[in-house]
Amino acid sequence: MGLCPSINLQLATYTTFPKGLYSVKYKLSDLLPIITETLSGGREFTLSVTGTSMLPLLIEKRDSVSIKQPEFPLKKGDLPLYRRADGSFVLHRVVGFDDGGYIMSGDNQIIAEHGISQDMIIGVVSKIERNGRHISVKSPLYRLYVSLWTALFKVRYPLRRLRKSAKNTDE
User: Fold this and answer.
1) pLDDT above 90 for 44
2) Are 70 and 31 spatial neighbours (Cβ–Cβ below 8 Å)?
3) Residues 24 and 16: beta-carbon distance below 8 Å
C-alpha cells in the first residue's frame, strides 16, 4: 500500500513515516511540495487521521483519507484539507459560504471557521479507508450522512446543551 503519512487534524504540525520498527517525524509543511506535486499530477495522497474534530465520521488510528486535487468551487459538504493563516493544516467540512470564502467546521465541533479562501485549500477528500474498506465520498450512504450532518450544524450546540442538561438532572 505504500507509505501513509499521518496528519493531526487539530494541530497538523508533524507527520510520521514508518521506518522499520521506528517512526521518523517530519513537519507536514516540509511535505507540502510533495503533496502538491502528487495532487497536481492527478494522483491522490493518503493521510492517516488523528484528533477528534471529525468524529463520528473519522476515528483516530482507524481511518485514513485519500486527498485529490480540488475542483472549485467546493460544495457544501465537501471535506477539504486546508492550511490556516497560522500555518496549521486542517481537515474540516464545508458548512457554508460567506464573503471571505468558505465556512468550515469539524463534524464534532459547534463553532464554524469563517474566511477560508480558495488559495488556502490544498486538496479534498475523495475516499475514506476504514478497516481495509474504501468508502467513496460519492456513495449514497456517505452523501446521506453528509446531508444530515450539515443540516444539523446550526442545531448541534442546542442539542449538546440539552443532552448535558438532561445528564445533569439524572445525577
Assistant:
1) yes
2) no
3) yes
